[in-house]
Amino acid sequence: MWVFTHKLPSQVAVVAPRGLFTALEGGYTWRMIRGGTWSFPAMNDLHPYAEALIGLVDDWSQSAGLIISQIDLIGFSQGAVLFYAIAIVYPERFRALATLSGFLPDGAEDLIGRHILAGKPIFSAQGRQDNI
Predict the structure, then answer these.
(1) Which pLDDT band holds residue 132 (cuts at 50, 70, 90)?
(2) Among the listed residues 64, 91, 77, 93, the one whose alpha carbon sits nearest the alpha carbon of residue 18
(3) How far apart are CA 119 and CA 3, in angstroms?
(4) Are residues 89 and 65 in contact, defined by beta-carbon separation less than 8 angstroms?
(5) In a domain? residue 14
(6) Number of domains in the chain
(7) What is the share, in percent, of the chain residues with pLDDT greater than 90?
(8) CA-to-CA distance for 129 and 52, rounded, in angstroms?
(9) What is the extent of the structural domain holding 94?
(10) Fewest C-beta atoms under 10 Å: which of 6, 52, 89, 127?
């Protein structure tokens, strides 16, 4: 996501964590994939990492002397999936969401049906050649 930072205003701070686990097909993911299984992550799989990432932002902003009540989330691939989870679990903590080549975690549909994201600007894009 660093490719986008040169276009941001100087007063914008960027926190860009990488997934904690190595994905079998390369890259990184935000959940542990158990041997012999591969499936789309569920909200329950991502909740601890969503909570940890919100904690990271809170700790970082406090150490930097910043007051951050809402954040903009921009995620690619597995980062997009995690940011969907954060948006759904902590709708009051984000202002806007943009995702590229991601998907909703399993179980998200039931929570979104409660209109918890109503009024939030959300952009999602998927490439024609992306097979997910």
Answers:
(1) low
(2) 77
(3) 28
(4) no
(5) no
(6) 1
(7) 46
(8) 32
(9) 40-127
(10) 6
Strand partners, 100: 76, 125
Asked if residue 64 is part of any domain, the answer here is: yes
Read off the pLDDT of each residue in 2-7 and give the average, rounded to a whole number.
81
Helix, strand, coil tally for the chain in percent (to 5): 35, 15, 45
| Residue 35 falls inside a structural domain | no
Token reading at 56:
């990271």
**Looking at residue 70, what is its pLDDT?**
87
Query: How would you class 65 by CB atoms within 10 Å of its CB: exposed for 0-12, middle for 13-18, buried for 19 or more?
Result: exposed
Run of H or E including 58: helix 43-63
26 found inside a domain: no
The answer to whether 31 and 43 have CB atoms below 8 angstroms apart is: no
Which pair of tokens denotes residue 3?
């490719």
Does residue 14 have a pLDDT over 90? no
Reported as a pLDDT band with limits 50, 70 and 90, residue 131 is low
Neighbours of 51 (CB within 10 A): 14
Supply the pLDDT for residue 58.
93
CATH number at residue 52: 3.40.50.1820
The first and second tokens of residue 25, run together, are: 């097909």
